[in-house]
Amino acid sequence: MNLILHLLLDAAVIFGLAYFMPQVDVKNFGTAILIALLLGLLNFFVGWVIRFPLNLVTFFLLTGIVRIIVTALLLKLIDKFLDSFTIVGFWPALLIALAVAVAGMLIDRSAPTPEMIQSGYEAILNLRLPFA
Length: 132
Known about the structure:
Layout: H1 2-20, E1 24-26, H2 29-57, H3 63-81, E2 85-87, H4 90-110, H5 114-118, H6 121-125
Antiparallel strand pairs: 1-2
Helix pairs in contact: 1-2, 1-4, 2-3, 3-4
């Protein structure tokens, strides 16, 4: 269920930003879903190969930033594969990658997985401090 939410939300973010950014062109929402699916698959199979050396260079201190940059690179790679998806320049790809990361973070916080609930993740979020 969480995977479907992520795919639909990523597709909506990509399609919505393509509507507002003239440097990005997506033919239709079906193409946006295909882009989100390819992005997820590439992140799973290829992304770690790119992320690991970059994280070694930064001593694992900039993991989030490295993940966003690698996602932008993968979006540019998807741009080369698909004719119905175009990104002109690296900065729009970086903005889309940042928006996808923020949207993914929000969906993870609002819909935790059963493993997160068992580990006490939800209890930590609802923790009230006496001085807050």
